[in-house]
Amino acid sequence: MMNYETLELVVSEGVASLTLNQPDQGNPLNAACCREFCHVANELASRDDVRAVLLRARGRHFSVGGDVSLFSQDLDAMAGAVLHGTSVLHMGIARLMRLNAPLVACVHGAAMGGALAILSNFDVVYSAPSARFGAAYAQLGFTCDLGASFGLASRMGLARARRFLLLGEILDADEAGRTGLVDYVMADTEVNAQAEAAAVRLSRGPTRAYGEIRRLMARSLGQAFEAQLEDEAQAFARAAATQDAREGITAFVEKRSPIFNGR
Q1: CATH number of the domain within which 94 lies
Q2: Which of 115, 164, 202, 204 would give a disulfide with 52, using CB separation of 3.0 to 4.6 Å?
Q3: What DSSP line would sit under 10-49, residue for residue?
């Protein structure tokens, strides 16, 4: 396992706990974090003992988003800086999205810009009441990145996500819940434990089937219906060939709870 400066990764009993770890700075997505996020995604993708991922953060805020001050140092070089930064962070996000392991997030404080984009692509998002969600791309003259256009549209619906980005809205936790941006809003004393419990529960499930479901859903609105039907059939067949499927059917017939091993 690699050592990270801006992140902390602990893998235990199938759950990869990934923590944003620059609390004094608000956990910005600065150059070091972008680089390490890609490295950690590569590490998770190469491991066969990761069956769920739990993303959290230390400090007052989940993340203040991208480090805009980097752009101000050389305005003429902004376009190149964007391409350089996204080249590593986008690759990391893409590889997370291809994992079989479901992605769970637990949010508190501010979750802004690129951090919000990342969250929007997670499978299950828990939020503390203190959380605030925003993406002020347009106020800076920018468009969005890090999968925001896909994740926000998937969670909020296309029209609502477009309005959110165009108007640069800031949503509190309850409104984020109503729009579908987060799945559960829970008390500060409960949210972390509930997110952990969800990650543990998913880590004990049929991991390869979860991966097939995640990829099917990611393609569902981007291709013809007939193509999606065939993808479903092929994914179903691959899942049916796993040990977990055999265990699931056997447990059903024997009227007991299945014990999945992710194979």
Answers
A1: 3.90.226.10
A2: 202
A3: EEETTEEEEEE--GGGT-EE-HHHHHHHHHHHHHHHH-SS
pLDDT category, 31, cuts 50, 70, 90?
A: confident
* Nearest-angstrom CA–CA distance, 93 and 86: 10
Same structural domain for residues 107 and 221?
no
Confidence of residue 18 (pLDDT cuts 50, 70, 90): very high
For residue 9 the two structure tokens come to 């990764």
Q: Which of 93, 130, 115, 139 is nearest to 27 (CA)?
A: 115
- The tokens for 22 are 């620059």
Phi first, then psi, for residue 261 (nearest 5°) are -120, 5
Q: Is pLDDT above 90 for 79?
A: no
- Domain with residue 243: its CATH number is 1.10.12
DSSP, collapsed to helix, strand or coil, labels residue 152 as: helix
Give me the phi and psi of 61, to 5 degrees please: -120, 150
